[in-house]
Amino acid sequence: MRLKKRRKAQVSGWRVMRRCVIFFTAICIIPVLLVLMVATDRYLQPVRRHTTFVEQQLHEEGKLSVEPLLNQNMSLIAKRINRRRQHMKKMCKLLGLDRPGNDSLHRPNAWEFLVDNKHHLIWCNIFKAASTSWMYNFNILAGYSPRFLKKSKLVPMTLARQRYPRPSLRDLQKAFDTSISFLIARHPLERLLSAYRDKLQFALPHTHHKKLGNEIILKYRYKKNKKPVGLANQRTPTFSEFVEYLVDSVKKGEQLDMHWAPIVEFCTPCMFNFRVIAHTETLQEDQMYLIKLAKLERIIQPEWKNAGRGATQSQIGKYYSELTRSQIFQLYHIYRYDFELFNYTLHGYLEYGKPDNDPSSLLDAINMKEFLPNDLPKVY
């Protein structure tokens, strides 16, 4: 009995000591943890505020501050842009697009360039590739106030051309020697979808593109006297009908609308030595880098305009699932040089295509005749 009582006393003594240790440990550790949590939260707050600020500026105001995110990433952005320049030069040489000639691929085209001699900046205006944003910036550089641009009923391009006349080839080549030149590339099939949605699906009444849309409907919806299935009330061409029209236009050798013409013909990038190749996928960083490089931080800011109908990228599956895989391959061949020069692929597009009813159609599209260096892209 005494042994049992002695053991119980020892056990209860250990329990008391253990509880005391746990109590004093908790008193010491909990305040330290609280201090660490407060300190950590304090250091994270600027990051959170910065992220929120960027998102608000991007989605609500359409502008981004030049300073945040830039100083630390400047060298990385410069390396990325230099890799793009080197890739484009390599592909220009490989495809024979850097040799002067008399066709639209080998004859330098100065028509779409804007040259700002005051600020030593050159831009080739590629429609549906942040063109609205940079047309606004060039109008600011031209001396127009934001208030005037907001109220003006004139088309921004018209205002810009009053201050930046279309340059001659000789003047453009001379300006390249002393200016920072840039263009903005976009995935060819995303750019094509953006053009379709903006100019055809949401075409304004009594415009050129509304008339074109009606012509596409008449030719491709009612061809061969077939009645449309489920499209009787749709007054705009479907994306599939638009692609049929585009493929036929290329087959006939017709000049394509400037909103979906290939960049390789529009800007003839292999004929000029561009300093900056920006991509819409990294536009936020690329244009901050460009503005800082040109020392224009106090005059213009990165812009993100014309996103009123939702991001085109989120609509890719919806629209490209209307097409067959052979149609997507045909589009690839139309924009093949843009794919090659700016390092894009069909990944994220081809998988949405519907299987062709006739397997030979897909085989023909895949095995399209290769273009010769001096040929325009052709669809067979």
From TrEMBL:
From the record, give the transmembrane residue ranges.
Answer: 21-39
- Name the InterPro entries for this protein: Carb_sulfotrans_8-10, Sulfotransferase
Q: Where does the record say this protein resides?
A: Golgi apparatus membrane
Q: Which Pfam families match?
A: Sulfotransfer_2
Q: What class of enzyme is it?
A: transferase
> What's the protein's topology in the membrane?
Single-pass type II membrane protein
| GO cellular component: a single term | Golgi membrane
User: What keywords sit in the KW lines?
Assistant: Carbohydrate metabolism, Glycoprotein, Golgi apparatus, Membrane, Signal-anchor, Transferase, Transmembrane, Transmembrane helix
List its EC numbers: 2.8.2.-
Q: Its Gene Ontology biological processes?
A: carbohydrate biosynthetic process
Q: Name one GO molecular function term.
A: sulfotransferase activity
Q: What is its main location?
A: Golgi
**Stated family:** Belongs to the sulfotransferase 2 family.
What name is this protein filed under? Answer: Carbohydrate sulfotransferase
